[in-house]
Amino acid sequence: xxxxxxxxxxxxxxxxxxxxxxxxxxxxxxxxxxxxxxxxxxxxxxxxxxxxxxxxxxxxxxxxxxxxxxxxxxxxxxxxxxxxxxxxxxxxxxxxxxxxxxxxxxxxxxxxxxxxxxxxxxxxxxxxxxxxxxxxxxxxxxxxxxxxxxxxxxxxxxxxxxxxxxxxxxxxxxxxxxxxxxxxxxxxxxxxxxxxxxxxxxxxxxxxxxxxxxxxxxxxxxxxxxxxxxxxxxxxxxxxxxxxxxxxxxxxxxxxxxxxxxxxxxxxxxxxxxxxxxxxxxxxxxxxxxxxxxxxxxxx
Length: 300
Hints:
There is one protein chain. The chain is of the alpha/beta class. It has one domain: Rossmann fold, CATH 3.40.50. The protein contains 6 helices and 10 strands; from the N terminus they run βααββαββαβαββββα. It has helices at residues 70-76, 81-85, 105-109, 139-162, 177-193, 277-293; strands spanning 59-63, 89-93, 97-99, 115-117, 132-133, 169-175, 204-208, 214-215, 235-240, 262-267. β6, α5 and β7 (204-208) form a beta-alpha-beta unit. It is globular. Mean pLDDT is 80; it is low at 1-44. It holds the Pfam family FSH1. Keywords: Hydrolase.
């Protein structure tokens, strides 16, 4: 089964439909809803500026799930966010392609359109292969997809620099299709490092509910990534045991990583970002372990 997008069918992981979501945000001014919604490729939207009191923390790029957007991700990770912000500056990236809302998202976040994705629908890679796939379109379309993802990520980084962020860019935090995009970006960094071509130095990733495969972000360059390549940059993987989006998939992104580099946490839930303290604390323990082992943050 191939999905044209991957998002969060149960929004925030609990029936919180009566909550005033604006009240959950430290800065409600960044959450003004819009009514524009279209399925065409569009210009890159600005990312969401991180908290001022984290200006000098090491920075994590946060990539939202398909069919959502950066504001929605901030709410979805509301339990995890303050824990991460104690040590990191979170910088949210807006995906480059407009899309339909993910299942269940439109019912709660309809006024928060437009919704976005990391791949256009026609560019979905085949999830049946636990390696590195190209897109289903032509090489020219492939290059445009990669360029659009790079542009979105670069814009977020540049915007946060202008906002006063000074910390090193040390990691990526992705959910669902955003986790797939983050891991694919890191695979290219890993392979480029072998030839001295890498321009980023991300140390680790937190990848939640991530589908396989990795997709090839070296399209259009002289450098080739093997179809059998595996991500060796340290990563923490989080999966729900009742994930209704991924249960038909033959593989998950965890299968695309080397055994020694990947840590995994499984919890009793659907396709969502954890909210319960017991899960958040367990995930944070793994994140801190990996961050310290990779030198992303100093050992306490």
